[in-house]
Amino acid sequence: MTHETTHENDIPDQECRMTTPTVSATGLSLSYGGTRALDDVALRLSAGVTGLLGPNGAGKTTLLRVLATAVPADRGAFTVLGHDPADAAGRQSVRRALGYLPQTPGFHPDFTAFEFVDYVAILKERTDRGARHREVRRVLDQVGLADARGKRIKKLSGGMRQRVALAAALVGDPGFVVLDEPTVGLDPEQRMRFRELIAQAGEGRTVLLSTHQTEDVAMLCHRVLVMAGGRVRFDGTPADLTDRAAGRVWSSAERDPGARAGWRTGTGTFRNLGDPPPGADLLPPTLEDGYLLTLDEADTAVTA
Amino acid sequence: MTWHVDDDDLRAYGRGELASPALWSADTHLTACAPCRERLAGFTDPAAVDLGWARLDAELDAPRRGPVESLLVRLGVPDHVARLLTATPVLRRSWLGAVVCVLLTTVLATDTVRAGAEPTLFLALAPLLPLVGVALSFGPALDPAHEMAVVAPMHGFRLLMIRTVAVLATAIGLDLLATLALPSFGLIALAWLLPALALTATALALTSRLGPVLAPVLTGGGWLTLLVVAQVKAGAAGTLAPFSAAGQGVAAAVTALACGLLFLARDRFDRLQTFSV
To answer: Where are the transmembrane segments (chain B) (predicted)?
Structure first.
């Protein structure tokens, strides 16, 4: 199952029948400053973690901000849990169902972890003090910060700050969680811990995870979207994306000039992607191979 | 143990209705008497106990309020609004200290120079302080959690108004205190008030179109340009037009108009105004 572009008709009927989409979008387009950031994007998201891969400038953050109702699209429409954010009332309903961790979450540095999440809980209309504090404690416990809730944010490590931001996103048990590159800047151990938290967050709710890390997608996601040039270039399972590179990865002693991409590996041989020559020494593909070939084909399509 | 709390007192204690001094006696006795504690458990509604524990949890978890937050709560501001205001950068001590220093310097300079019948320097500067304060209280530049706030269910305009009212009240309060230090000029020393409201409302109305940086810069620049032009027209001794009766009327009209435009543009504060791919 592969999809060059994503349109509603491309979504397999079986999947549509089996799951009710949390998010349903058609024709989302957004331009600014002469750049087409989103170009006719359509998608359906249902429960579980969906990965969003793409190079810088692909339109990932713009798509997440549109779906999070931070910026309006020029054209197109979408719903979140049946709510249409086109008007103020619908937008508020969407926001009540939303958890959002932006690309660069900002913190009031003098706040403690508890105070910051408490602040976000107030923005999420939790005005009753006792109930709000119980909710804050619950989400801080959930992200493993029970013992650090009284610490000032400026004294926390990068990984702990990301967990504070995730806790803030989870206040109110939202049905749709948007995470914009939450593992950037984390060391491997922190990244692994954060993946566990994202996997937990994806149980029973819909999570859209933007990332540059194909390992994040391979370990967490039941589905993956690849964006380039403001368009969705692939929509399927991580296994489908890996399969795109089946029979198209080979090794050679020197870089193959016919390869679309190639690099020297730690063993000294070259790993080549593209259309292999006859008799090539084929290698098992990885998710990253499928991703790179998808981007390469998208680039070729744009150039042509 | 020579005595035990009787049933009626225990029931009243469980309901939280036992009056002192019987309450004190019961408190002391229950600390030491396990049988009475067991009897009390039988008289107490489990739901009320759960509620009590929940209240205790909330208090144990409650962060210690800072001086500004405590003052706001003491003044009757709801707890959650006070917390929102503590995240307003210009309500921090460093900003307030800077404003006080600027005002003290201006008042001293105005009192020392005494170039005419009006405290012109003070009247020119005082309206800018609320403008700058409000401009710095909202937007991505100085609110690090701005993006999270924008996508929260609380409407961005409501958050803006909460912060604006608090900052305006603080800045105008400080301006008024400074005015009291210039008693010899009479009521003319209050001629900054309407221009202050006009500038602040205009900047906010323009923010919906021009963004949180350009709008206050243009508004403040326009005010200073207006004063220079008025100074040239009035000559050395005359009253500057913005501080005359007619000028005050114009400031009131501009305030009303800008407030109307701001209300019409309120939904624009519910979205991010700058973004990248």
So the answer is: 90-109, 121-139, 160-181, 187-206, 213-232, 244-265
> Looking at CA atoms only, how far is residue A246 from chain B in angstroms?
32
DSSP codes, A130-171: HHHHHHHHHHHHHTT-GGGTTSBGGGS-HHHHHHHHHHHHHT
Where residue A100 falls (left for φ over 0; alpha for ψ -120 to 50; beta otherwise) is beta
SS3 assignment, position B66: coil
Average pLDDT (A126-143) is 90
B78 chain-A contacts, CB cut-off 8 A: 127
pLDDT at A11 over 50: no
Mutation for testing the B interface, residue in A129, A151, A153 having most B CBs under 10 Å: A129
For A164-198, letters b (16+ CB in 10 Å) and e give bbbbbbbbbebbbbbbbbbbeebeeebbebbbebb
State which CATH number among 3.40.50.300, 2.60.40.420, 3.40.50.2020, 3.30.565.10 fits the domain covering A1-90+176-237: 3.40.50.300
For residue A90, give how far its alpha carbon lies from the nearest alpha carbon of chain B (Å).
11
Residues of chain A positioned with their CB less than 8 A from the CB of B263 = none
Q: What is the pLDDT of residues B29-72, one digit of tens each?
A: 998 999 998 888 888 777 777 777 767 776 776 777 888 788 88
How far apart, in whole angstroms, are the C-alpha atoms of residue A170 and residue A177?
Answer: 8
Question: Does pLDDT of A7 surpass 60?
Answer: no
Query: Which residue in chain A has the smallest CA separation from B87?
Result: A108
User: Which chain A residues are Cβ-neighbours of B54 within 8 angstroms?
Assistant: 130, 134
Cα separation, B71 vs A72, whole angstroms = 39
Q: What ipTM, to 2 d.p.?
A: 0.82
Q: How far is A284 from chain B, CA to nearest CA, in Å?
A: 34
Domain boundaries, chain A: 1-90+176-237, 98-173, 243-303
